[in-house]
Protein backbone atom coordinates (compact mmCIF):
# COMPACT_ATOMS: atom_id res chain seq x y z
CA UNK A 1 0.00 0.00 0.00
CA UNK A 2 2.77 2.42 0.98
CA UNK A 3 4.72 1.62 -2.21
CA UNK A 4 1.61 2.17 -4.32
CA UNK A 5 1.02 5.56 -2.68
CA UNK A 6 4.63 6.61 -3.25
CA UNK A 7 4.47 5.54 -6.90
CA UNK A 8 1.19 7.41 -7.37
CA UNK A 9 2.66 10.60 -5.89
CA UNK A 10 5.75 10.22 -8.07
CA UNK A 11 3.57 9.80 -11.16
CA UNK A 12 1.58 12.92 -10.27
CA UNK A 13 4.78 14.90 -9.72
CA UNK A 14 6.18 13.82 -13.08
CA UNK A 15 2.84 14.62 -14.74
CA UNK A 16 2.77 18.10 -13.18
CA UNK A 17 6.33 18.80 -14.25
CA UNK A 18 5.62 17.71 -17.81
CA UNK A 19 2.36 19.67 -18.01
CA UNK A 20 3.82 22.91 -16.68
CA UNK A 21 7.23 22.81 -18.38
CA UNK A 22 7.31 25.92 -20.54
CA UNK A 23 11.02 26.77 -20.61
CA UNK A 24 14.35 25.01 -20.20
CA UNK A 25 15.45 24.64 -16.58
CA UNK A 26 16.98 27.74 -15.04
CA UNK A 27 19.68 27.49 -12.39
CA UNK A 28 19.29 28.84 -8.89
CA UNK A 29 21.78 31.51 -7.92
CA UNK A 30 22.63 32.99 -4.54
CA UNK A 31 19.55 33.91 -2.51
CA UNK A 32 17.96 37.33 -2.71
CA UNK A 33 19.23 39.87 -0.18
CA UNK A 34 16.98 41.60 2.32
CA UNK A 35 17.81 44.94 0.67
CA UNK A 36 16.68 43.67 -2.75
CA UNK A 37 13.53 42.17 -1.19
CA UNK A 38 12.72 45.53 0.42
CA UNK A 39 13.06 47.35 -2.92
CA UNK A 40 10.81 44.87 -4.73
CA UNK A 41 8.25 45.02 -1.93
CA UNK A 42 8.27 48.83 -1.98
CA UNK A 43 7.66 48.81 -5.75
CA UNK A 44 4.79 46.35 -5.29
CA UNK A 45 3.21 48.45 -2.57
CA UNK A 46 3.58 51.69 -4.55
CA UNK A 47 1.82 50.14 -7.54
CA UNK A 48 -0.90 48.63 -5.34
CA UNK A 49 -1.55 52.00 -3.68
CA UNK A 50 -1.77 53.69 -7.11
CA UNK A 51 -4.49 51.20 -8.09
CA UNK A 52 -6.19 51.27 -4.66
CA UNK A 53 -5.43 47.57 -4.17
CA UNK A 54 -4.86 46.06 -0.75
CA UNK A 55 -2.43 43.16 -0.90
CA UNK A 56 0.04 40.99 0.93
CA UNK A 57 3.51 40.75 -0.62
CA UNK A 58 5.75 37.78 0.19
CA UNK A 59 9.36 37.32 -0.93
CA UNK A 60 11.13 33.97 -0.52
CA UNK A 61 14.75 32.97 -1.11
CA UNK A 62 15.98 30.11 -3.29
CA UNK A 63 15.18 27.62 -0.54
CA UNK A 64 11.58 28.82 -0.36
CA UNK A 65 12.20 30.47 3.02
CA UNK A 66 10.39 33.70 3.79
CA UNK A 67 12.67 36.74 3.51
CA UNK A 68 10.06 39.50 3.68
CA UNK A 69 6.32 39.79 4.19
CA UNK A 70 4.14 42.88 4.22
CA UNK A 71 0.38 43.13 4.63
CA UNK A 72 -1.22 46.38 3.59
CA UNK A 73 -3.91 47.79 5.86
CA UNK A 74 -7.34 46.19 5.44
CA UNK A 75 -6.06 43.21 3.43
CA UNK A 76 -7.86 40.00 4.41
CA UNK A 77 -5.83 37.75 6.69
CA UNK A 78 -6.23 34.73 4.41
CA UNK A 79 -4.05 36.44 1.82
CA UNK A 80 -0.97 36.01 4.02
CA UNK A 81 -0.70 32.25 3.48
CA UNK A 82 -1.81 32.54 -0.15
CA UNK A 83 0.94 35.08 -0.96
CA UNK A 84 3.56 32.90 0.72
CA UNK A 85 2.23 29.87 -1.16
CA UNK A 86 2.39 31.68 -4.50
CA UNK A 87 5.99 32.75 -3.85
CA UNK A 88 7.02 29.22 -2.82
CA UNK A 89 5.27 27.68 -5.83
CA UNK A 90 7.00 30.07 -8.26
CA UNK A 91 10.37 29.43 -6.63
CA UNK A 92 10.11 25.67 -6.22
CA UNK A 93 8.84 25.00 -9.74
CA UNK A 94 10.92 27.77 -11.40
CA UNK A 95 7.97 29.28 -13.24
CA UNK A 96 5.13 31.77 -12.77
CA UNK A 97 2.09 30.47 -10.93
CA UNK A 98 0.00 31.58 -13.92
CA UNK A 99 1.41 28.54 -15.76
CA UNK A 100 -0.30 26.29 -13.21
CA UNK A 101 -3.53 28.30 -13.41
CA UNK A 102 -3.55 27.84 -17.19
CA UNK A 103 -3.01 24.06 -16.90
CA UNK A 104 -5.86 23.73 -14.39
CA UNK A 105 -8.14 25.90 -16.57
CA UNK A 106 -7.30 23.66 -19.52
CA UNK A 107 -8.43 20.58 -17.63
CA UNK A 108 -5.03 19.46 -16.29
CA UNK A 109 -6.25 16.54 -14.21
CA UNK A 110 -2.86 15.95 -12.60
CA UNK A 111 -2.96 19.35 -10.94
CA UNK A 112 -6.49 19.01 -9.65
CA UNK A 113 -5.44 16.31 -7.19
CA UNK A 114 -1.99 17.67 -6.41
CA UNK A 115 -1.28 17.96 -2.71
CA UNK A 116 2.23 19.42 -2.81
CA UNK A 117 1.39 22.89 -1.47
CA UNK A 118 1.07 24.29 -4.97
CA UNK A 119 -0.95 27.49 -5.32
CA UNK A 120 -2.08 27.31 -8.96
CA UNK A 121 -3.26 30.90 -9.45
CA UNK A 122 -1.63 33.99 -10.93
CA UNK A 123 0.35 36.22 -8.61
CA UNK A 124 3.66 34.40 -8.12
CA UNK A 125 6.85 34.87 -10.17
CA UNK A 126 10.47 33.83 -9.83
CA UNK A 127 12.92 36.68 -9.26
CA UNK A 128 15.98 36.60 -11.52
CA UNK A 129 19.47 38.00 -11.00
CA UNK A 130 21.18 40.09 -13.68
CA UNK A 131 22.83 36.90 -14.99
CA UNK A 132 19.50 35.09 -15.36
CA UNK A 133 19.58 32.86 -12.27
CA UNK A 134 16.67 32.48 -9.87
CA UNK A 135 17.41 34.22 -6.57
CA UNK A 136 13.96 33.82 -5.02
CA UNK A 137 10.35 34.57 -5.82
CA UNK A 138 7.52 36.99 -5.09
CA UNK A 139 3.93 36.16 -4.25
CA UNK A 140 1.07 38.65 -4.05
CA UNK A 141 -2.48 38.06 -2.82
CA UNK A 142 -5.42 40.24 -1.88
CA UNK A 143 -7.22 41.10 -5.09
CA UNK A 144 -8.22 38.98 -8.09
CA UNK A 145 -5.45 36.74 -9.36
CA UNK A 146 -5.07 38.94 -12.46
CA UNK A 147 -4.73 42.06 -10.30
CA UNK A 148 -2.24 40.25 -8.06
CA UNK A 149 -0.30 39.45 -11.23
CA UNK A 150 -0.30 43.15 -12.20
CA UNK A 151 1.28 44.00 -8.86
CA UNK A 152 3.95 41.33 -9.33
CA UNK A 153 4.82 42.55 -12.83
CA UNK A 154 5.04 46.15 -11.63
CA UNK A 155 7.25 45.13 -8.71
CA UNK A 156 9.62 43.27 -11.01
CA UNK A 157 9.48 45.91 -13.74
CA UNK A 158 8.06 43.47 -16.29
CA UNK A 159 4.64 45.01 -16.96
UniProtKB/TrEMBL annotation:
Leader sequence residues: 1-20
InterPro entries: GlcG_carb_metab_protein (IPR052517), PduO/GlcC-like (IPR005624), PduO/GlcC-like_sf (IPR038084)
Keywords, in A-Z order: Signal
Gene3D superfamilies hit by this protein: Haem-degrading domain
Protein name: Uncharacterized conserved protein GlcG, DUF336 family
Pfam families: HbpS-like (PF03928)
Record SUPFAM superfamilies: GlcG-like
Domain of life: Bacteria
Residue intervals passing through the bilayer: none
Amino acid sequence: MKTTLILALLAITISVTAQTQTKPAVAYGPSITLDAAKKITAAAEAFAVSKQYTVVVAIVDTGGNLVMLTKMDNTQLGSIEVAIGKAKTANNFKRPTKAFEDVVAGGGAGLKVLGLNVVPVEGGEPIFSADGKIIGAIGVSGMTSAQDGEVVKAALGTK
